[in-house]
Amino acid sequence: MAAVTQELGLDAARTRRVADSAFEIRMGVLEQGEAQGEGYVGQALGIADVLAAVYCDKLRHRPEDPDWDGRDRFLLSIGHYALASYAALAAAGVIPRAELQTYAADGSRLPMSGMKTYTPGMEISGGSLGHGLGQAVGMALGLRLQGRADQLVYNLLSDGELNEGSTWEAAMSAAHWNLGNLVALVDLNGLQADGRTDDILRMDAQEDRWSSFGWHVQRIDGNDLEAVLTALDVATDQAVAHGRPHVILCDTVLAKGVPILEAKDKLHFLRVAAEEWPTAKEQLTAGYEENSR
Ligand SMILES: Cc1ncc(C[n+]2csc(CCOP(=O)(O)OP(=O)(O)O)c2C)c(N)n1
Ligand SMILES: [Mg+2]
What we know:
Layout: H1 2-7, H2 12-36, E1 38-39, H3 41-46, H4 48-58, E2 73-76, H5 82-91, H6 132-145, E3 153-158, H7 165-176, E4 182-188, E5 191-192, E6 195-196, H8 197-200, H9 206-212, E7 216-221, H10 225-237, E8 246-251, H11 259-262, E9 270-271, H12 276-292
Parallel strand pairs: 2-3, 3-4, 4-8, 7-8
Antiparallel strand pairs: 1-9, 5-6
Helix pairs in contact: 2-4, 2-5, 2-12, 4-5, 4-10, 6-7
The structure holds thiamine diphosphate (TPP) and magnesium ion.
Thiamine diphosphate (TPP) binds at residues 43, 78, 80, 127-130, 158-160, 189, 191-193, 268.
């Protein structure tokens, strides 16, 4: 990793720090899955590198004051990815790590689908797909109207949400309003609830689609931390009050980093036998140590 980092001009200590956070996020995802015996674990492991780069490097926020007015916004439109956000919020110090044990339990602040009113640091409620980008457009425009376009709005959406007309209405609006302070991150994990994304509604030429809607487009391997950091740097360096909105299309691998889970089918929602969780954690740790050498 060090050689590639140098070649890209990234600071090695920075990449290492974010890689540590990605490991912490993945472990937090497994801890939540184990506590509940099930959950949307596959997509959370897949998007962990992107969330580590956003929450533990790029996002301007104050962990001890999640409602700080000067913060950047991170909107999770895919409510079912909430355990990924919770693990990221714990890694960023917004919620206590031990609280991850309460994932999806009665009375918990960490419901199975992300809710603004329950969890510190959650900007919107998810669950009904296809609404996140529209809300992000409203927030980015609102911040600009208040003269605060230096505060960025990030929105993580899924490839399933690209089937929603509302996503493309929002994409058109963002370009119409020249929202250069908006960064959309799309998790292209190739899967939806009922099958492969390509089988349900064709998803080809994503770069061309976004670009024809007026967006600045980058497509990356979303599990390559250097690529993620570089793409985010490019997007945020070019973030301006009036300009093209940015989309980073992230190809990710479901259950990345945990071979026994990667090998499963029905990865949209995983039920895992109690005895498999310790193996999953061991595999995650072994892979991380291997990559850290
Ligand atoms: C408007 C709306 N339609 C349908 C659903 C049901 N639903 C929940 S998750 C999901 C899959 C969406 O695709 P994606 O987020 O890409 O799935 P994943 O990658 O997590 O498997 C669907 C259709 C929903 N929550 N909201
Ligand atoms: Mg998907």
